[in-house]
Request: fold
Amino acid sequence: MLSAQESTLQALLHDPAWCITSQRSQPVSELAAALRLPEYLARVLINRGVRDPEQGHAFLAASTAALEDPFAFRGMEVAVERVRRAVAKGEKILIQGDYDVDGSTSAALLVNLFRLLGAQAEVSIPVRAQEGYGLNERIVRQAAASGVTLMITCDNGTTAHKEIALARQLGIETVVTDHHTVGETLPDAVVVLNPHVKEEPLKFRDLCGAGVAFKLAWAVLQRLGGGTRLEQAHRDFLAGAQSLVALASVADVVPLLGDNRILTRQGLRAMPDSPNPGIRALMETSGLDRVPSGMDVGFKLAPRLNAGGRLGRETLGLELLTAGSYGQAMDLAREMDSLNRQRQSLDRELTRMAEEMVAADRGYDSERVLVLGHDEFHAGVVGIVAARISRRFNKPAVLVATRDGMGRGSGRSIPGFHLYNALNECSGLMHRFGGHALAAGMEITRENLGLLRRAVNEIAGKHVVRADYATPTLNIDAEVPLQALEPEGVQHLSALEPFGEGNPEPLFATTDVEVAAPPKVVGRGTGHLTLLVKQGGPALRAIGFGMGERVSQFKRGDRVRMVFTPRISTFRGPAEVELELKDIRA
Reply:
């Protein structure tokens, strides 16, 4: 482990750079006036791509009426007709999902659709430790032996050329619903519904796998209704299905803009009263009795849904989200909660091990991508540990769990480095791989791991030219004086939710702030830094979560500058503004 001196030095070297976005004042004031918002919130909207009041109203409303028509997919008519024929003829259908949140929610969405239509569909999820991600030969051969004639993939299939060709040979036609990066050719499927296919005329291309499955379900129900009008039962189904898309969109870190923002916002709102007993049980075991935020999904709901897939119960998420009763769902949710606690313990242990490996090998200091492999890594948690290591060192990280000469790995990247494209340039070193810009999975032999480390860093050296590559940044929406933070204005922040990829929680900065009272530490562990600050007006309470160790850096009367997100607190009665600190400096 790093010494205390090394840790302090590293923290100083990795102080984030403050990048404050600037806009011309006239468009800001015009947008603020048209939307009746404070100017600092108008600046946030401009930073999210809003250019005029019409776009602003659409962004704030996030209405399902603004969703792109599912038949904007050029192959949607073909897909719908094949599904309708299968339902009408009573064909045996297989839904091919996956063990992560996106794969489980998209498969559950289609399973529940076929239940609504009175057609039974079988489901298959790969065994993670033995088979890895996506479709495989075992699944195809088992499906053919059981009489399946139509297979629909969810969150996978775009690169499954061999498996889909085998399925066709065995009498199975395939409809692919996926969102992963597309290769040079498409598989021999009936149709591939993937927004990243170059020829697609879509306006919005950033759907997750569950979003694509939702569009297929919507299109099927439209055609069953004889046009664009939907029966009430079908409308209710789609309204509930948006919650599945919301879970997947946040968990899979797709941009929460356009259709994703609409489906996620509406889906989160529907969760407390969801018709899906699995979602209600998941909420209860997570301690949520209100509309969840994007952060709630990312830190409470998604980790539980992922726990089974990480620890050998790959079908658990699917079972929960297709449960027939609340009692059954609660039993599954409790099992999921127990597995998640096991996952947390394993996660902490392997994160510590990975950090020690990076500290012990000085070669990593100069490398732009961290590639680590170990026999004691667990294939089920290498993805989440890779994400922690990537954040810890602000570098892309690939972790591989090796066993018997073979390794299954997962990588996470940072903005500005396209991980899938980098792996694609050295694809000959891996048995198979897949993913997108910020995340990828792969299978690789132990002997090729060192070659991958060297190759991917050579690629990073060619493509990454920024000198501040390893310097984290805080992207700040605007400088705001504390006097401008009235409760009425800050309350409008909720209209910008849900926050996540592409629509981050707004950050603001201010300077020349006085520390109005001696700082304190509250909470367990290293604790949280709390202090009162003022800037020509009444003092505001500020809290920096996990910043307790910095309490000795400040004293009453100091002048500081801060990056923060404002909150509304009613703890002491009337609504008042508090500040959640993201950084504070003398």
